[in-house]
Amino acid sequence: MSSRTKPKIIDLFAGVGGFSLGAVRAGFDLAAAVDLDPHAVETHKKNFPCTPHGRRNVLGLTGGDLRDLAKLNGDRLTGLIGGPPCQGFSTMGKMRKNDARNKLFFHFFRLASELNPLFFVCENVPGILDEKYETLREESFRLIAKEYHMLAPFELSAGDFGAATERARVFFIGWAKDLGVAFSSADFTPPPRVKRTTVRSAFAGLPRRIHPNWQTEESGWRRVDLSESDFADTINQLLPGVAGEKAAIKRFIERSEVSGFLGTIHTREVVARFAKVEPGKTDSVSKFPRLQWDSLCPTLRAGTAKDRGSYQAARPIHPTQDRVISPREAARLQGFPDWFLFHPTKWHSFRQIGNSVSPLLSRSVLSLFKRRLHLVESR
Known about the structure:
By secondary structure, this protein is α/β, with parallel strands linked by helices. Helix content is about 30%, strand content about 15%. It has 2 domains: about 10-195 and about 355-375, Vaccinia Virus protein VP39 (Rossmann fold, 3-Layer(aba) Sandwich), CATH 3.40.50; about 200-355, DNA Methylase, subunit A, domain 2 (DNA Methylase, Chain A, domain 2, Alpha-Beta Complex), CATH 3.90.120.10. The chain contains 12 helices and 12 strands.
């Protein structure tokens, strides 16, 4: 199906593209992607070169702006998706009620009301359901109450959808009253027979050693053994003409070369300290958790951008080696394809991966909409 005939989706707060990738895998046309972070927009463009991009602050965006960017030409938008910044709601942070970023949640719903898509899907951290944010939620939902049915917020975890991480997120889902279908939260439960992906499964076929001196973008390109990994078959489906940077796809197909194997130089003291951390436990100084081969990874965190102090995220320690994991290993845990690119630095790579929705989870959620829309069209 060509992009002209596929139902169109716009991704707000698109980041590196976890939600976007789930959308195109589910069979949607990614008609536009918007983010304010220049590194996110730059990387998203590489992975989705056919999609129009807007580096814009959502506070100043209108529905008309997005229609123009997506070239809707009078057609109705099918879906609006996005994950507004979660740092102000996260229990790992200070959960300030007046954090300026919190208002972006409201503006997602404002734009939904202006765009009038057939459906919308908004995700955030469980902390957003705290009582202190009740007014914000009510004000946001009031914007779309007249035109949309909306489910009560519910929680999904990426680990239940095939990712190797315990990443719980709350979903806010609504659909137009004139769509002619109905949904329940039970519709979005994990599909049956999803195989649990452990850290061991996720890392299968990746280089077993990451040299600390692999510090440049080019030195981070390494061969992987795809024959060792059933999980690789699950995540590595190619999307020609839809997603993927040409040079990265070429290296992946012809030489099984994959980016992101960037090493970290640890001091002897840090290595000695990591050596004492048992699997499943946390280093007392850095607060880095050591992964366990046959379990899920704890939620990968993003750290902060430059305007918030440039704090690096707590990066997990490898299950058996006394080092933190590489960006590519983190991407495998989240369920990103091996051909998918991230920023050439560790800091921004981990921010992009830690801020993402798992593509495995987003594909499952959006595939339900795709199936129901098909039923509506075939009546």
